[in-house]
Amino acid sequence: MKRYNIKCRAGSTEYIDILKESDSDFLVRFTRDTNGSVRTTEETITRHLFNICVQTGYLNPAVEACVA
After folding, report:
1. Domain range spanning residue 9?
2. Residues 54-68: pLDDT tens digits?
3. Shortest CA distance to 47 belongs to which of 8, 18, 68?
4. Share of the chain above pLDDT 90, in %
5. Which helix (H) or strand (E) holds 35?
6. 66, part of any domain
7. By Cβ atoms counted within 10 A, which residue in 1, 18, 46, 57 is the most buried?
């Protein structure tokens, strides 16, 4: 599963996980944590929209933690 951080305001943590992909779209899970209140939704977005979000910096690949 790939995770991308969503550009958001300070004090919030938002990211999406790609659950499934096809030739034309992605099934993603949005997770939003604002002041300890966590909300998740699953949606389908087109590859075109996803790629635009990455190119503009709205989505950035999450850095995976290293386990020593």
Report:
1. 2-61
2. 999 999 999 865 555
3. 18
4. 74
5. none
6. no
7. 18
